[in-house]
Design brief:
Layout (H helix, E strand, L loop, with lengths): L1 H12 L2 H14 L4 H7 L13 H31 L7 H13 L2 H12 L3 H25 L3 H9 L4 H31 L12 H9 L3 H29 L1 H4 L2
Helix pairs in contact: 1-11, 2-11, 4-7, 4-9, 5-7, 6-7, 7-9, 8-9, 9-11, 10-11
Length: 253
């Protein structure tokens, strides 16, 4: 069974470059499919979204996801490490409650509250996505650090390592596969959720979807959804390949 999983993981990781090529082909060549969409939706006067280039929307989407995911990762890692140290263990329930509350409120609600205070644009979307994405990172950090065997910690302490050295050289490397799984979940969720940021004026791949929904243009919705889906799948495969590199000993066990 483990050998089968190992082979499946290897086959998935090999799909990264073909999927990336397919994504680039879709971004650069989707506009060339205008006759196809015109034939599929003859009732539409404008079957191809042309207000913005798909390449500029893709870059803006990746930029927003990258910024919000970076904030979520920093917050989740920092809070998770703090909660597992002796000085922060008593704050762990409070930290987990705050993180869970960030997931309780949907991004649309956060955007609705943030826009009157901050205004339209990328900033309210950045805040909403970061709040929504840090819980998986926090939970994975807590689980990963908590899974490090106590005897390993004691052995490191016996070798004369201080708490900082144990964290950086022993605990985080051993917890890396679990933490990466949480980061993977956070980023993939943010890729899909970032599409709604266009409702508050942020430039993302959700723009064709929002315009299509408001104008009853199914072709626009399909075009935006296809690109968001391809981006999410490509990112997921990239994380799969990275996970294999970080934990070859686990896969080969």
């Amino acid at each position: 069974m483990r050998f089968v999983r190992h082979e499946q993981s290897m086959s998935k990781s090999r799909l990264v470059w073909p999927m990336l090529a397919l994504l680039l082909l879709a971004v650069l060549g989707l506009a060339e499919l205008k006759p196809v969409f015109a034939a599929l939706f003859p009732e539409l006067e404008r079957p191809m979204y042309e207000q913005e280039s798909f390449s500029s929307l893709m870059l803006a989407h990746i930029k927003l996801v990258g910024a919000s995911s970076s904030l979520a990762i920093l917050a989740g890692l920092g809070a998770g490490i703090f909660a597992t140290r002796s000085a922060g263990r008593e704050f762990r329930p409070l930290i987990e409650t705050l993180a869970a509350s960030g997931q309780t409120f949907p991004p649309v609600a956060v955007l609705a509250v943030a826009v009157p205070l901050i205004g339209f644009g990328e900033l309210p979307a950045l805040i909403a996505l970061a709040l929504y994405g840090w819980l998986p990172v926090l939970q994975a950090t807590l689980a990963g650090l908590g899974s490090v065997p106590q005897e390993v910690r004691e052995s490191a302490e016996g070798l004369g390592m201080n708490s900082r050295q144990r964290l950086l050289r022993i605990e985080l490397p051993l917890a890396a596969p679990v933490i990466l799984a949480g980061i993977r979940t956070s980023v993939i969720v943010n890729i899909g959720t970032a599409a709604i940021a266009s409702t508050v004026g942020a430039k993302t791949l959700g723009l064709p979807i929002i315009v299509g929904l408001s104008g009853f243009n199914t072709a626009y919705v399909i075009q935006g959804a296809v690109l968001v889906g391809l981006l999410a799948v490509t990112a997921d495969l990239a994380f799969e390949a990275l996970a294999r590199r970080l934990s070859p000993w686990r896969l080969g066990a």
